[in-house]
Amino acid sequence: MKRNAGGRAAKRLPVTRERIFAAARTLADRSGIEAVTMRAVASRLDVEAMSLYKHVRNKDDLLDGLIELVMQELEPPPVSADWRSGLRLRARSMRTVLLRHRWASMLIESRTTPTPARLRHHEASLHLLRDAGFSVELAYNAILSLDSYIYGFVAQEVWWPFEPDERPELGASLAPHISPSEYPHLLEMISFVMGRAAKKEGRASSTAAGYQADFDFGLELLIDGLARSALSQKKR
């Protein structure tokens, strides 16, 4: 047991499911999901690993608890919201949370346990679309398409080996190795991206703003497509 400055035994906080999951989340945020083991969580709480099993059944229960914590951070679309603004809020909230916990997207997609926050998230999304007149089929396809886009975009942000403000240097290093006669359009795009990054140089939070603008562009394409599909559905 740890001791305080006076040499007396420091009072240890009781172990609870909430403290276990919070400790696991901190480990994952700092060192990745691979760092989350029962032994590592116990060490962070200054207890023996076996004491955790009074509160969590096993490693699967621990991982499901992590998903629940992350899903609780998502901002659900208000039931009264216009479906377009509701989907924008949902998508941006998901991206923000998944970037805050960069290990979370793969974990969420790999597990199927219906945790309460996860169920509420999907129910609120479907409620929004069904109230807007979307058929069950269109609502399903809408959520599937949006989530595929969100998770895919976040994966690129997480795994790309460079940041947006590093694009000019990256482009400058790549350009000499790309033949203008064979790849003129690729060089044109590299030049455009480098120029855009240079214009943003020196602005506060240019990295975050750059990715946010790219994300919003694709999101609006999806929402516009869903609006056309919803209109077509009503005409049938």
List the helices and strands and how they pair.
Blueprint: H1 17-31, H2 38-45, H3 59-72, H4 83-100, H5 104-110, H6 116-131, H7 136-159, H8 167-174, H9 184-200, H10 206-235
Major sheet details:
none
What is the overall shape? flat
The overall number of domains is 2
**Percentage of β-strand residues:** under 5%
The helix fraction, in percent, is: 55-70%
> What is the typical, i.e. mean, pLDDT?
88
User: What's the CATH C level of the largest domain?
Assistant: Mainly Alpha
* Element string (H = helix, E = strand): HHHHHHHHHH
Class per helix and strand makeup = mainly alpha
Low-confidence stretches: none
Which architecture name of the largest domain does CATH use? Orthogonal Bundle
Distance between the termini: 71 Å
Classified in CATH, the superfamily of the largest domain is Tetracycline Repressor, domain 2
Please identify the oligomeric state: single chain
Count of DSSP-assigned helices: 10
Radius of gyration: 23 Å
Reported by name, the CATH topology of the largest domain is: Tetracycline Repressor, domain 2
DNA-binding region: 37-56
Protein name: TetR family transcriptional regulator
Domain HTH tetR-type: 14-74
GO molecular function: DNA-binding transcription factor activity; transcription cis-regulatory region binding
